[in-house]
């Protein structure tokens, strides 16, 4: 047995069952994400553009997200998330992820968390916080395309903020969209309509979210369906929107321009390549708006688009909030690292 030349290092470990046991409330999730966006907006964070690994043996890829978050959190983190479209055939979610947190001052590993739920929750929270600052306050109709894991939290957290009168959802497979609508209706305590096509889902909606699962870019969401004054959030891996979508927008907002302007995936990749979305046409990053450095929605007539690619900073912030709650409730495991 050799002497350890430094104090013991322990890692907190939260598996999927632990994350579920935490029962993070909607307000806890929203607060963690809005706080992290403000930290980013104030320039107290470092975020690296995501990287992709395509194993080439299935229809899917891994995303590797990296960042360092200051403020009251002071953690660096790396999340690796697999995104495999055929996983439903194996009874698995399409996205499975692991988040590792580190002390950003000395590099000590601090925690390992199942991040599949974190990915879903933080994505929905970023969508909702975007709407809080960029959608009309009186928005009452939501049109949501897509029924994957992140979709549930999009709708749930948006409804938490807006208490919609009408919620429409659509996805390609009938069993998927019907099951999605039934789950939402039960959890939200209100009717949720599953539509059979894109147009009836999004046309005339106050808030439109496009989270589709296309195999290749295809303009399924038509620009003419977007009503003036709407708030539109396209974030599918493959583009489902027309090139003309950005032409009708009063403001274009992203979560992080560094990662939105590069890479091969993303709903507005063609718009970046065509120069329709650029540093010149970009209004702001959402964090700048949350921090009060740039204006959000300024009048009811503005039609606004928000594209988010997914922030490592959001993963870090929500993971940090989960660790703190777990420590208070005695949930999770502590592992000796060194």
TrEMBL record:
InterPro entries: NAD(P)-bd_dom_sf (IPR036291), ODC_Mu_crystall (IPR003462), ODC_N (IPR023401)
GO cellular component term, pick one: cytoplasm
SUPFAM superfamilies listed in its UniProt record: NAD(P)-binding Rossmann-fold domains
Gene3D superfamilies assigned to the protein according to its UniProt record, in alphabetical order: NAD(P)-binding Rossmann-like Domain, ornithine cyclodeaminase, domain 1
PANTHER family, per database record: KETIMINE REDUCTASE MU-CRYSTALLIN
Family: Belongs to the ornithine cyclodeaminase/mu-crystallin family.
The protein's name: Ornithine cyclodeaminase
Provenance organism: Aureimonas glaciei
